[in-house]
Design brief:
alpha+beta, 25% helix, 81 residues, globular, two-stranded antiparallel sheet
Length: 81
């Protein structure tokens, strides 16, 4: 899905189930399966994702948790364990 009018680009899901989306500026989003393998793939791909951010966890289509973390990677690892 792409809409150049608002600077939004979404890439198709890859083999690990990760969907990447980004805007033309600082906002990026990823939809990843709730598995350590998918988190590790994303971490390697981005060259370490130890940065601050806001995240939303879903179970099915229901939003179950919204959080903020100094290190998204470390915080998501704790949610998965």
């Amino acid at each position: 899905m792409s809409n150049s009018n608002i600077g939004y680009q979404e890439d198709p899901e890859n083999g690990e189930g990760i969907i990447r989306a980004r805007t033309t500026k600082q906002i990026r989003s990823w939809e990843i399966p709730r598995t350590m393998k998918a988190l590790e793939v994303l971490n390697i791909e981005l060259g370490r994702i130890e940065f601050t951010g806001i995240y939303i966890l879903f179970e099915g289509k229901n939003k179950v948790y919204i959080g903020e973390a100094k290190s998204i990677y470390i915080r998501l690892k704790t949610h998965m364990s």
